[in-house]
Every structure is written in C-alpha cells, then in structure tokens.
Amino acid sequence: MTTATPHLLPGTEIAIESLPKVSLHDHLDGGLRPQTIIELADAIGLELPATDAAALGAWFAEKSDSGSLVEYLKTFDVTTAVMQTREGLERVAREFVLDLAADGVVWGEIRWAPEQHLTRGLSLDETVEAVQAGLDAGVEEARGAGHRIRVGQLVSAMRHADRGREIAELALRHRDRGVVGFDIAGAEAGFPAGRMRDAFDLLAASFFPATVHAGEADGLESIRGALLDGRALRLGHGVRLLEDITLTEEGGSTIATLGPVAEWVKDRQIALETSPSSNLQTGAIAAWGDAMVDHPLDLFYQLGFRVTVNTDNRLMSATTLSRELALVAEAFAYDLDDLLALQLNAAQAAFLPVEDREALMDTLIDGFEGAL
Fold first, then answer.
1. How far is 170 from 163, CA to CA, in rounded Å?
2. CA distance 358 to 361
3. Quick check: 339 and 368 in contact, CB under 8 A?
4. Per the UniProt record, which residue ranges are transmembrane (predicted)?
5. In whole angstroms, what separates CA 112 from the centre of its chain?
6. What is the reported pLDDT for 66?
7. How confident is the model at residue 61 (pLDDT cuts 50, 70, 90)?
8. What is the secondary structure of 24-84 as a DSSP string?
9. N or C: which end of the chain has fewer CB within 10 A?
10. Which helix (H) or strand (E) holds 185?
C-alpha cells in the first residue's frame, strides 16, 4: 500500500521513500491492497464489510487498533480468504513486491503461513510455488521500472497447530527456490516455541535460519523459549525483552542493568524485529505506555542492541516502512545517520550469505550518502 505524499525526515526535505531500505518483518497476508481484496472477493463470492477500497482500508485499520493481538489477528480471516487459489496468491505476491519497491525497499523478507492457504485444493508445495511465481513477476516488473529489489520467502508455521515439522520440511524443500528462512506465527501466549522443538531440531541440523515471534503478546519466558528451543537468530518484535532490563537513576544519569536473557540477545546481536505501529495497536508495549515515544526501540538502540524497524502488516496498520521510520524519527529525534544505522542493523540480520549482506550494506550507505 503506497502513499502519494512522501514522508520527510523531520527537519529536512529528504523523502524517506527515496532512501534504500531493508524489510525483515512484513506479512504477505497483512499487506494486500484493499482494491485487490474487493476484486478477489468478488471472484469467489465472498462478502466483505465494505466494497469501497478506502472504506475497506479504514475498516482494517479500525479493527486492528484493539490493544489485543488476538483481536488483531481476526482481521486476517478476510485476507487469507482471498488467498486460497494460485491466481490469488500470485497476484497478492506480485503486488506486494511492487509496493515494497515503490517504498524504496531493496531487500525484503516476506513471511506467510502456507498451511492457511489450502481450502481450495492447493497443496503446501503448490502454495509456495504460486507465491514464488508472484514474487518473481513482481521483481521483474519492479526492476523494469528502475527499482533495485530482491526478496525472499520466510515460511511460517502456525503456533496453535501441530504441523511444525511438516512446515519445516516444506521450507527446506524450497530453500534453493526462494525460501530463505523459517518462522512461527499466530497467538503467542500459551503456544511456546518448545511445542515445535522437533521442527527447530530439523532446521538446526540442516543449518537453516529461523526467526521466532516472541516478546510481543507474551513475556520473557516466550523469548527464552525462542532462543533455547527455536535457536532464533532474530526475534519477531521482541519488545518485552525490556522486562529483563532494569533502569535506575544515579547522579542524574540513567543506568541500565541487563538480565541474562537481554545480555545474551545484545552480546550475540540477535536482531529485534520491532514494528512500532503494530506494537502499539496490539498492546505489546502497554506496560510502558501507549504512545510512540514510549516504545522501547530507542532504549534498545541506545544500548547497542541490533534493533530494526518494520511494518508487520501494512494493511492493518495503514502504514509503510517509510512511514514507520518517519514516526520513530519524530518520536526520538533521529537524524539520517540514525536511520542508516537502523537499516544497517537490518542488513546485517538479513537471511542472506555474508557477501550479499556486505553488498547490501554498501547499497544502503551509497543511497544514504546520495541523499545529502
């Protein structure tokens, strides 16, 4: 979902859309264009809460701003319903890439759960192949329009289901055909990573990277499980890691003392995939406040964590990566160097070979220097 008005870095005339960016946490079924939903729904006879694109987009934003991850997730019943055919998956994936490219994304990891797209006869492998076809078409079209973009799939298993190993095997079958990593998603509380230990064992034995949603709707034990059972190289959101950091005032200065989990995440540079607007919508940071300035990402950044900024679900949050960066820049008085640091964090955490990560960082540096 693109916007006509660019988001300027506060105090400058620099449009954030013009800067190269890395997107690590962006759900395929959370990034549909409202008009596409209307057209796909019409083709399958699905009744929608609104049949005007603007009104439908507003409905998603309103329903998602509930303060509850469980309620937030209910909006996906609509988007996944129109993503049950090869044609639907290909179109959504193609447009997803085009929207990322229009926002200046040069590397995007696109996560989704194939097991949620089987109601109209597709097999798991066929869904992955359909999404990859759409991604490939989107990349080709975007490059034809002058954009520099690469993308990879993150195959997710749903935490409440018992298909973890099956989905891990699926990801491994497609590791050389577009799939770059594994994830678990869905309701976090009550469904720890340990439920899928066999899947994570298989992935570890196959040297395949995983990111795990943790520290969004559950606390420190969920993060601990993601690290121990999931061998997570990144934490999806991870904002409740703040529960393991104690802040004290000494002589006019604030001193941060890290607990063992926070220290492990920082010292090993396990990336935090924060999604500021989404984290406010779902109540993930409710213990510390309800405004952007209350988000712990700045504290993580100041303490040297590998913190990144993401969109999570562009449709539900009515957002883009450029908008998210503009919001945090406004909240925390970030300048161009800060935004570059956040992008370099994301590049270093990307599920890419080291040579590709280094080339990606060069692209980011060149693009940001060119904005001056």
1. 10
2. 5
3. yes
4. none
5. 10
6. 75
7. confident
8. EEEEGGG---HHHHHHHHHHHT---S-SSHHHHHHHHHHHH-SS-HHHHHTTHHHHHHT-S
9. C
10. strand 179-185
Quickly count: other Cβ atoms within 10 Å of residue 65's Cβ: 16
Is 358 a residue of the active site?
Answer: no
Helix (H) or strand (E) holding 21: strand 21-27
48: nearest Cα among 14, 81, 6: 81
112 dihedral zone (left: phi>0; alpha: psi -120 to 50; beta): beta
And the tokens for 49? Answer: 């809460």
- Look-up of token digits 């940001």: 368
Mean pLDDT of the chain: 96
Residue 252: CB atoms within 10 Å: 5
DSSP for 68-130, please give it: -HHHHHTTHHHHHHT-SSHHHHHHHHHHHHHHHHHTTEEEEEEEE-GGGS-TTS--HHHHHHH
3-class DSSP assignment, residue 315: coil
- Say if pTM beats, i.e. exceeds, 0.85: yes
Residue whose token pair is 């309620």: 71
**Residue 152: other Cβ atoms inside 10 A:** 18
Residue 49 to residue 57: CA distance in whole angstroms? 10
H or E element at residue 169: helix 164-173
Residue 160: phi and psi, rounded to 5, are -80, -15
What's the CATH class of domain 16-370?
alpha beta
As a whole number of angstroms, the distance between CA 97 and CA 289 comes to 34
